[in-house]
User: Fold these one by one.
Assistant:
Number 1:
Amino acid sequence: MNPKAPLRVLVVDDTVVYRKIVSDVLSKIPGVEVVGTAHNGKAALVKIASLKPDLLTLDIEMPEMNGLEVLRHLQDKKMDVGAIMLSTLTQQGGAMTMRALELGAFDFIPKPQEGSMAENLIAVKASLSPMLQAYAKGRQFRKLLRGALSHSAKRLTPGGNLDKTTGTVVRRHSPAGFRRSKSEIIAIGISTGGPNALSQMLPRIPGDIGVPIVIVQHMPPVFTNSLAKSLDTKCKVTVKEACNGDPLQPNTAYIAPGGMHMKIMAGSDGKTRVIKTTQDPPENSCRPSADYLFRSVADHYVGRATAVIMTGMGTDGNEGLKQMKRSGALVIAQDKSTCIVFGMPKEPIESGTADVVASLDRIADEIIKSVRQP
């Protein structure tokens, strides 16, 4: 893909209105070319062959061949075509969206359910424009990375073999004289690419990890519940969507509900810790916000917490991580090569806030170490 070439997009939706809305939005985004439309998955596959798009905007629920079937075909044929899903705000839509992300979809946007054409255009553009920019940037980086790995694979390391499976970990020194305790809580901030990354990382956490895990995944309502249910079937720890007033329990991961902030507070006995969900104003245009969660963990777990920042657009979490770092937390950041979007981890890594920079397949090991040894 020529970095100066436009991003070629095929719009796939069984509804004429949404094909027009999405096409109109895309046509106004610099660096994007709408190469065609299709009314269902079968028609899309024919047009993919002839139009060679880089990306699909793909409705999930369509007659004849739905969006999931299209993704399976792309995966089976190893076709280098990305997909952004258009998903309905229903329990069924949420569950299908989680499956689409597992099948390799880049991300999703919820379909506007009401409002005028003009209002829907604004809503779709607000979600789609930054997502396309992130996709194009990430696509180019991954092509460069594949080229570099292909070149490296032809050479041997001094030890005689190229290690391509164990991932990478880079450690940094904590401030001189500072001593931290074993972590008693894990706090994770994640966004674009998150469901897939979490489905790879969380199952590596043992069921007897012994501490609670609190997670902010940027998502609208309904979808976080579907994500929690999906992860719970894969993980040794219990995974649930957090509820206001939940006491923090070990060996349980709590996902902030979509559209709500989540923070940690002291229980009525002053010893236990409980979850509080709020509708305080969005931070960094996000609700839930990782910054909002991280600040509360910094306040209640001084010197006894691990923060993890993973793939995602934007900078949410950066300021909260600084506060956690000042309060003695260990900060782990996902490395650039395994992020779908290297946004949220970028500043913590470049500024030195991150103590450990690890590839996706090594993050769980680093979390376990932080809980079992200071």
Note: Residues 107 and 131 are 8 Å apart (CA to CA).
Number 2:
Amino acid sequence: MDRAAPVLADAYQLLRQELYGYLDEAEFLATERPEWTPEESRSARALVSDLTGMVRAILMDHKETATGICPTCNSRWPCVTVCTIHRLIKDPVNEFVKIAQRSAER
């Protein structure tokens, strides 16, 4: 057994917890606060741009190539990551679709 495996598993768990902590804070700001301060409102607007930028960056890493293989996953494109992002963005219950529909109506 690799002696580093338990250490790496703990490190991955800590990293995952930290990332989920950031997401939890953003979700709390969006859903649990009855009223926002002007600073929180500014932060929420910036957060939308940050999150869409993150999704774009992930998609850029998981692009189609001439061989039809995702260079990040080394699997057939569209890879699981692209399919998951597509499913989540196109889910009519989520705000992405609602925003796109409102924008198209203008």
Note: The mean pLDDT is 90.
